[in-house]
Amino acid sequence: MNQIQETVLSWYAKSKRNLPWRKTDDPYNIVVSEFMLQQTQVDRVIPKYNNFLKKFPSVKSLAQASPADVINEWAGLGYNRRALYLYKFAQAVVTQYNGTIPENREQLMELPGIGPYTSQAIRCFGFQKDVPVVDINIKRIYSRVFFRGEGSENELNNIARELVPPSQGVAWNNALMDFGATVCMDRPKCNSCPLTSHCSAFKAGNPTKYVKPKTQSKFAGSNRFYRSLIIKELRKNDKFTASLQEIQKIKPHDKSDEWFESIVASLEKDGLIQKTGTTISLPK
User: Does the annotation count 153 as an active-site position?
Assistant: First the structure.
């Protein structure tokens, strides 16, 4: 394990990515980056992260904004519910903790939008705690190196806890994320990998194998796709409003009015839109 730690950290010292959220230990900035990075590519997140923090520079400024402004600023990142969760997170922090983000894991997990992974990421990168931060990239590395491309959730988490070097949790977790994103990828670059002598999957002759997460259904043409189109239409004017008749233009010819109404209703239920008569808008 010591050899693996030294090898990965040495690789990271030479190959680390230059990412804006690595230049701060402000817990709020870390929270914003973690919400944005969920299921969204790093290159898309970087400009949105910088712009978002210019508009909402603190947890209090975000909590005082309107949901419409937050959802509008989220344009281009997808999964608009994340914007709403981030907004509700900020409001809860202001209400419950006077604007100070807690570092306790249990307290973090009680806040909107925070799950096991995000709570650990905030504690590590925002509070410099030596805790494991296990995303899909890191699971892939551990699966290949220690379990020949297999390994249960408990086994992967146990290895993750054991491997965090004392006083180097931030560097270690960042190193693994970069390593999984650029070397030990879905199709690994074994020819340039410094861990092949330690990798059980490589030694077993099956270096591409790993425990894969459940894949999401196709986005184009899905209900999620049309939900995003409705939000996109509402972003087009300063008041973030449109008539149902205008919005209904996005409905494909092979879909019924009832189907379209169910899409609108789902957005309303999630708090992403408000419906007043024949007018819909982003939430005020």
Answer: no
